[in-house]
Amino acid sequence: MIDQPRMPRPPASPLAHHWDLDPDIIFLNHGSFGACPRAVLAYQAELRRQMEAEPVRFFRRELDSLLQQARKNLATFIGADVEGLTFVNNATTGVNTVLSSFPLSPGDEVLVTNHEYPACRNALDAAAAQAGAVVIVVEIPFPLNSADQVIERVLESITPRTRLALLDHVTSQTGMILPIETLVQELENRGIPVLVDGAHAPGMVELDLQDLGASFFTGNCHKWLCAPKGSGFLWVREDHRDGIRPLVISHGATAPLGGKSRFRLEFDWVGTEDPTAFLSVATAITVVSAMVEGGWPEVRRRNRELVLRARDLVCNALGIDAPCPDSMIGSMAAIPICDGSPEPPPLPHGLDVLQDCLFFDHDIEAPIVSWPAPPHRLVRISAQLYNTEAQYRLLANVLAKFT
After folding, report:
1. Which residues, 6 or more positions from 175, have their beta carbon under 8 angstroms from its beta carbon?
2. Which of 213, 216, 217, 293 is an S-S bond match for 196, by CB 3.0 to 4.6 Å?
């Protein structure tokens, strides 16, 4: 690694005061874990105070109605019917939940692309192995020229044995918005249920889950919605609800219905846990919306325009073309960089040496991704309201010294 002088740190956005982010770090990695605004954390802290002030009152007398209202607020934001919506800790949990209940038989085929988030790919591999099913990996190139390449590769991989497709809405490592509307329509019309891994979608793209028509959709609220960590959701289309059960079987499996569905009873109580992250999602939606005039449409527009400018800065500094069309970019973008070590980054933290260099030598937090496999690498940049174009210019200048 080349020793480099530390460059002047550009200022953050005037909107950065809404977050508790370390002012000494140029944080360009909202996509990994999100960042929760101060006002939302304060709301969650008050909920926790109420919970601990009288736990029986909170869990037995108040929680049911609180969860119901929280689901309604989220359902409105993502265009889902509330009865098919349940909170889970994260999208990986949502994927595992569907796969643990979905009926697969020996010889069945399940589709997934080579861009799928590794944790969810592992879940699919495990479910297929247990059932004797076969995982068909659809190879999607990156860089690529058109979203049509994704559609063509997926559809040509369908066979009479295809039973399920697990597809990203927004790819994690490569930061692309896949043509999910077309893919869902084509697959579902062929009788192939689609499980959409929408981890990055809520808050990055406008959602209408009922109009989308996928059998299953799971997403994170802690990323682009800026809700507390541990808040995600799973939505199940009505025709599949009787067959999907939570990973933890608890009281709801045998409780009297009392006017509720078995789906609702089972998912609403899986044991004692801290539900305050779920109950803070609506506040996060409101708080972020109020940061700019124009609300969420303006938030999404600003973030997208910023990340496109940032991508141009990095690509120009590296002397390369943009690796995918602008139309496939939301609030996150990945750019190929010089190769690294032929071995995966060492555990326990698994961070590339260049990512550590950016952090320790330049105060920049930006992920370096091994994709599709070492030694090939990408830098992935995220744009949130607290970022500025000058921050990405600094990143581009630093990366240019390693080419």
Report:
1. 31, 329, 330, 332, 333, 334, 380, 381
2. 217
Can you list the residues of the chain whose pLDDT is less than 70? 1-6, 347-348
Whole-structure pTM over 0.90, yes or no?
yes
- CB of 380 closer than 8 Å to CB of 366: yes
The answer as to CATH 3.40.630.30 being correct for domain 41-286 is: no
- Domain 14-28+294-400's class? alpha beta
Give residue 125's identity as a one-letter amino acid code: D
Enumerate the β-bridge partners of residue 333.
Answer: 381
Q: How many residues does the chain have?
A: 403
Total Cβ atoms within 10 A of residue 161: 13
Q: Sign (positive/negative) of CA torsion 383, 45, 87, 94?
A: positive
Backbone angles phi, psi at 359, to 5 degrees: -75, -55
Distance CA 196, CA 116 (A): 11
Task: Show Cβ contacts of residue 290 under 8 Å, excluding neighbours closer than 6 positions.
Answer: none
Structure tokens at 222: 């802690």
pLDDT digits (tens, 9 = 90+) for 252-285: 889 889 888 999 999 999 999 999 999 999 999 9
pLDDT for res 6: 66
Tokens 């599949």 belong to 240
Crossing angle of helices 180-189 and 147-155, in 10° steps, is 20
| Cα–chain center distance at 123 | 16
pLDDT tens figures, 329-373: 999 999 999 998 888 777 667 799 999 999 999 999 999 999 999
How far apart, in whole angstroms, are the C-alpha atoms of residue 224 and residue 205? 9
Sequence ranges of the domains in the chain = 14-28+294-400, 41-286
